[in-house]
Amino acid sequence: MSTGKVTVDGRVVEIGDARNILEVVRRAGIKLPTFCYHSELSVYGACRMCMVEVEGRGLVASCSTPPVDGMVIHTSTPRTRRLRRMIIELLLANHDRECTSCERSGSCKLQQLARQMGITEVRFGQRDKKLPVDDTSPAIVKNPNKCILCGDCVRMCKEIQGLGIWDFAFRGSKTRVTTAFGKPLQEVACVNCGQCVAVCPTGALTVKPEVDRVWDAIHDPEKLVVVQVAPAVRVAIGEEFGLLPGEKATGQLVAALRKIGFDRVFDTLFTADMTTIEEGMELLGRLEKGGRLPLFTSCCPAWVKYAEQFHADLLDNLSTCRSPQQMFGSLVKKFYAREMGRTPEQVVCVSVMPCTAKKFEARRPEFTTGGVPDVDFVLTTLELARMIREAGIVFNELEPEMFDNPLGMGSGAAVIYGASGGVMESVVRFITAHRSAGDVGRVDFYPVRGIQGIKEAELEIGGQTLKLAVVNGLANAEKLIGRIKAGEVFYHAVEVMACPGGCLGGGGQPYPNNTASRLGRMKGLYSLDRAEQLHRPQDNIFVTRALERWFGGPANANTHQALHTRYYPRRRISGKPVELNGRRDERPVEVAVCVGTNCYLKGSYDILNKFMALARQMGIADYVQLKGTFCLEHCDRGVSIKVNDEIITNVTLDNAEEIFKTRIAIKAEPPWVV
């Protein structure tokens, strides 16, 4: 911490722990405009909106210039104002200005700064060529015509999530942000977390809307439309209507959903409690029977997809429990619908979630029965706010209402699912009481709370010390997994959430979705937890009764069928196989060897070379078409190859020759060869 001082517009300000001039200026109460500056991301300094004049140095970018004792800084000179206005005009000239129909109208930073700078006309011509919109992802829509090249999405995806889905391509006026090889978003390793949407200052990246389809379902008289609401939504929805982050709006939220026209308004807290019970029993079972550890949570669909793509060897470590959203959908379609005298097709299940990846999760084939999805539509917090406005509802004037039962009751342990560490604390509350003969009282497990990227804790229970870890942000998850695989650390259980701060920082939450907002929402969730009458999931008699009535109790074959699932390796990027040798005949044996990272590390490149050498030695190279391909989605079982339509797994250098002779060469001796 510096003891120096600077002068900002005539006012002396201490430098303190400020990393750059921008932080000092904001500390002085001056709101300098920025596009590309986020305190949790690296400094980029591209937009130049934060330029200030420093005596003796001239114009400098305040975000990338460290403060020095004695500096005299001017933030609003004729020169800086003229520069900012010019930058805004140039951005607007290169921007698709269909503001009235844009998803971000009203929350667009470019729109706000144009108003702040007093821009009433743009002196430069508008771009004459429009690029195609990418709406292939189930969660995110990319409109490159609204991109201002601030780089926020690039840095968020690379630094916080460790994925690097977005990057800059081309040069000069042709520069744009795109995916690897310019592929559609659904064909790359995107995990649908939506954090790029959360930091995008314009409408270049938005949530893929499902509002119109939900309205259609509500107005269909043949359908019973039920809605479930995630914990993090209730402490964020109010931000869209003037409330502070974390301010309780549960009752108004329920009332708004009824006014919109939902037939039943339920709470995802119900199945969050159910998830905790099932996951707690799963952890205890693995501890007692020597199952695979650590047990990783599986509530976050972005984390699950990340594991499928990058850590197929850890999939057996993932909890088999479905997420609360998917448990709820299964209960509604398989049990509640029957009790209401309806078929699954006649019931429409809608989720309101803070998370964009939940849209992807709802479409997974594992969560569809007989062609009927367990969850039909997923609305983000922002989409629900749009529906409330469309319905003409004055949110702040609504009288609070209660959720419907039996699926509307939850404990405090379920409320905190919305915060990083909440799932782990819920499991701690469950197993502490489950393993104890008497009443253990209230359990508040503070070591796992907070927005830190990686948190570690220990729990003494039944004479055993459980080592626990909680991580948010996939880059942090990758660091932790690396340490686990290297044998540096060991844990019995690990909670992973893709979004900073957990679900409360999801990609579908209101803007600004920054650290201050996340802290406010987190505080709100823990406040709700303290106010709940029910503390542990097993205190929720509606859940325990449902488990007995529908499944004969928790953690058995019946719950495993309806409330659990399995996950499988998934390719990271779609692409055509690369042919490595020519062929003369039109009907060769096609052999594709996976050269994706998991298989490559297990020797697939050497196996491919071995096959090529054997084909030449045996004189059948013209009849064996060898290809290197991307993931065959079986990389948890060793190196995978595909011979025509047959997948062969667990191929090694030791058995490669035998497999080539018995499974490949024999097919390369057709009767037409003389």
UniProtKB/TrEMBL annotation:
Cofactors? [4Fe-4S] cluster; [2Fe-2S] cluster
Q: Which PROSITE patterns match?
A: 2FE2S_FER_2 (PS51085), 4FE4S_FER_1 (PS00198), 4FE4S_FER_2 (PS51379), 4FE4S_HC3 (PS51839), COMPLEX1_75K_1 (PS00641)
In which domain of life is the source organism classified? Bacteria
A Pfam family the protein falls into: Fe_hyd_SSU
Q: Name one GO biological process term.
A: ATP synthesis coupled electron transport
Residues of the 4Fe-4S ferredoxin-type domain? 138-168, 181-210
One Gene Ontology term of the molecular function aspect: 4 iron, 4 sulfur cluster binding
> What family does the database annotate?
Belongs to the complex I 75 kDa subunit family.
**UniProt protein name:** NAD(P)-dependent iron-only hydrogenase catalytic subunit
Task: Give the originating organism.
Answer: Desulfofundulus australicus DSM 11792
